[in-house]
Amino acid sequence: MQEFRYSLLDESYVLISEKRKERSNLFIEKVSDKKNCPFDEGNELMTPSEVYAVRDNDKNDQAGWKIRVVPNLYAAVSRSVLKTCKNQFFKFINGYGYAEIIVETPIHNQRMDQYSLNQFELYFAAIINRLNAIAEDKNIRYIQVFKNNGIDSGASQTHQHTQIIAIPFVPKVITDRFKRLKEYYEKNGRSYFSDLMEQEIALNERIILKTSDFTAICPYASKVPFEIMIIPSYDIASLTLLDSDKLVSLSKILKKLMIALYKKFNNFSFNLTLSEPPKGYRNAGNFFRFYITILPKMTTAGGFEQATAVFINPYLPKESTKILKDILKQI
Ligand SMILES: [Zn+2]
């Protein structure tokens, strides 16, 4: 059973996916067992066949790769005929979609802050390849790229990986955000992001680092301590439109931030998400910019957050910024 079930109370969908029950939690059971790790070099046959890889040879599903993308064995969605049911109380869309895993490194215990610059470039190139390939499916409306890292983030594998889930509708939270940004542009003739950046630069309290291509900030309304957004410094709606120079620039900034975060917290849990426009809006650069969010897991969302979606953050974003800036000065 894989179904997106609609709730009128929340005006949103829940994905019921029974297959996920079969998933063992390797984080708890086998924290560093290389032999049983499906993402290790030499264990390629423990995963479904790769859909993308950068490798030294042409031997698919064998050793010799630098980065590898495979369908998720415990996929929350899959591809059957797209079905919907519009019953007023029990409305659903069947769980049509793609669930893939980017295995970021063949090395079992390598952390993201230990990646070479080239590994980050390969990482973004793999994401771009999959965003383009999956977008070819006419049933897909939205593609989410995300990384769960560490036991408190929802990760079930210690080996570094990122996930892609593509679905046949645009979630309301994404549609609403997109609409607000479009309305801002229509009202002001400028993109929200360019105006926001202008304000943040003038204030200079929450900018962690800035290049001519990207800016990393702790957002004014950060949900959690040390929340970071990486935003392009110019109008560009999708990661897929980045040229190779800008890809290097983005890789450099993410590498620096990861080094700073690991220096501050040593091993820590975080979620990383890529915000892309809904499918078909890659040219919406006049009002939308893609961005990356890093959400360290230091606080637990409790009943208040669940009920209201209002997060309680014990840290002032400008304090998080200052700490990260100070660490970056020492690197
Ligand atoms: Zn491994």
> What is the name of the CATH class of the largest domain?
Alpha Beta
CATH superfamily of the largest domain: HIT-like
Strand order of the largest sheet: 3-4-7-9-8-13-14-12-11-10
The helix content, as a percent range, equals 25-40%
How many beta strands in the DSSP annotation? 14
Query: Which CATH architecture of the largest domain is right?
Result: 2-Layer Sandwich
Main sheet, how many strands, which sense, barrel?
10 strands, antiparallel
Helix count, DSSP H or I runs of 4 or more residues: 7
The small molecules bound here are: zinc ion
Structural class: alpha+beta
Count of separate structural domains? 2
Q: Which stretches are low in confidence, meaning pLDDT under 50 for 5 or more residues running?
A: 26-30
Which whole number gives the mean pLDDT?
93
Broad shape: globular
**What distance lies between the first and last C-alpha atoms, to the nearest angstrom?**
50 Å
Q: Into which percentage range does the β-strand content fall? A: 15-25%
Q: Radius of gyration, rounded?
A: 20 Å
Order of helices and strands: EEHEEEEEHEEHHEEEHEEHH
CATH topology of the largest domain: HIT family, subunit A
